[in-house]
Amino acid sequence: MQGLTPLHDAQKIVLDAAAVLGLEKISILDTLGRTLGEDIVAERDNPPWDNSAMDGFAVRWEDIAQEHAIQKPVTLAVIEDVPAGRMPSRTVGAGQAIRIMTGAPVPQGADTVLKVEDTEHTPDTVRVFKPEPRGSNIRPCGEDVKKGECIIARGTQIRPGEAGMLAVLARSFVFVYQRPRVAILSTGDELADLDERFSEEKIINSNSYGIAAAVQEAGGIPLLLGIARDTQASLKEKISQGLNADILVLSGGVSMGDYDFTKAVFREIGAEMNFWKLAIRPGQPLAFGKIQGKLAFGLPGNPVSSMVTFEQLVRPAMLKMGGRRSYGRPVVDAIFQEKFSKRTDRRHFLRGVLTREEGAFKVRTTGDQGSGILTSMVKANCLIDVPTEVERLNPGDRVTVQLLSGEAWATNAEPVHAGEHRLSCC
Hints:
By secondary structure, this protein is of the alpha+beta class. It has eight helices and 30 strands. The two termini are 29 Å apart. The model is unreliable at 407-420 (pLDDT under 50).
């Protein structure tokens, strides 16, 4: 019988097997959350010319440079008005000024912009009471972006900031990595789907929908195959339907019971399997391999086990296939607030609530950690990673925590932020 595969070994096997998908060209309006498949290089400076950061007057600094201007105001002739969106037509000479609006190009001859509130002005003149340092209130050409610079690198996930920058750079269409398509199949005669009539002996197929949501959150496209009944023929038929996807994810049927047919069917259809058991809890019965070149995962049937193992193995594979440069969740170190003990044969992932109190990260469990208690995932904003060799934890011990989102929030606590993304194998 095959032994338990350590998680870091399993992650390496999965990531080595996951190939990056191809590219597709999409509209800027569809880029949010997608992964950029090309380097975005600026074709011009931004701003393209020196422009005013204030409503005011463009002047020559030497005309206003006097130590006691408030006792002896300087009066300059206003020779032009330049609103935003129009180029100046005149050059500022000695004793002259041009009225200028925020964002308008700074006219030739001027090297300083005075704030309108620091002056007295008429349509034809401006009196200056407060001198400014040379160059004040001017945003120089290329301050934001220099022509020829790589502004957004390939592999970057597009957020609103990147989408705005694409617009600045006039990129209405860009290449992004394709989204992995994930076929999702639940197994078991005990399951009923949401839209079918069922008896009290049945339980709802929640795994398919939880996994589908996790696929979407990871940037993939879920394809629900429904439920395979407890026969080899039914399971084989459903698996065949899922091989048009990039990844096949089954839940249930990977244990050692009389009706757990996944292993037999995988062998029958020629699957190349890498491992069947994982040294973690929850989630020990877990299969991974390839079927006709497609990644195939057999996740445990218990809902928490399926979600935790998806986090540790399927999600990283999806992120790599979708072109991402990092594959793990953000992690932080936190202070454990409870007592916990376990055997030293498996790595544990406890569902936890992470808070930030008085500048320190603190974490506690969500309560009962049974693999069938889905409310433990509902309450959790993190997973507490307890290494294999750790036998017990006490209040005050430091632990590593995986955030289940980029930003975790907790009642009566400061928001938790983390910028580091890592997997145990990477």
